[in-house]
């Protein structure tokens, strides 16, 4: 026993429920539609698709190409998960037209 019946101090790290801002997260991204695309492929028809990328990290997701219906105003309605994503990371969305010999860039946001 210690004099005066004192217990020694106990130190420990309390669990935290907060996640640091720079900790990696999962981010759900919904890619819904585009409007007013230009005709890019006169021979095989347009097959637009979207790539969403976390800039500087090489993490990206891609929609399926739209091959039927109004390909100048395509609708994807897809949700994808980007991981890792940190708060403050920038996203870049690029619309491509898939052709026989590769893809042409329609535009970026």
Structural notes for this entry:
This protein has 109 residues and is mainly β. It is 0% helix and 43% strand. The chain is built from no helices and 6 strands. It has strands at 25-33, 48-54, 59-62, 75-85, 91-99, 102-108. The chain has a 4-stranded antiparallel β-sheet, with no helix packed on it. Strands 1-4 form a two-stranded antiparallel ribbon. The chain is elongated. The relative contact order is 0.28. The model has no long low-confidence stretch (mean pLDDT 84).
Give a quick account of the main beta sheet: strands, pairing sense, barrel closure. Answer: 4 strands, antiparallel
Describe the strand arrangement of the main beta sheet, using strand numbers. Answer: 3-2-5-6
Estimate the global geometry from the Cα principal axes: elongated
Regions with pLDDT < 50 over 5+ consecutive residues?
none
Give the rounded overall mean pLDDT.
84
Question: Would you tell me the structural class of the helices and strands?
Answer: mainly beta
What's the number of helices?
A: 0
The percent of residues in helical segments reads: under 10%
How many β-strand stretches? 6
N to C succession of SSEs: EEEEEE
N/C terminus separation: 70 Å
Q: What proportion of the residues form beta strands (DSSP E)? A: 35-45%
What is the radius of gyration computed over CA atoms, rounded to a whole number of angstroms? Answer: 25 Å
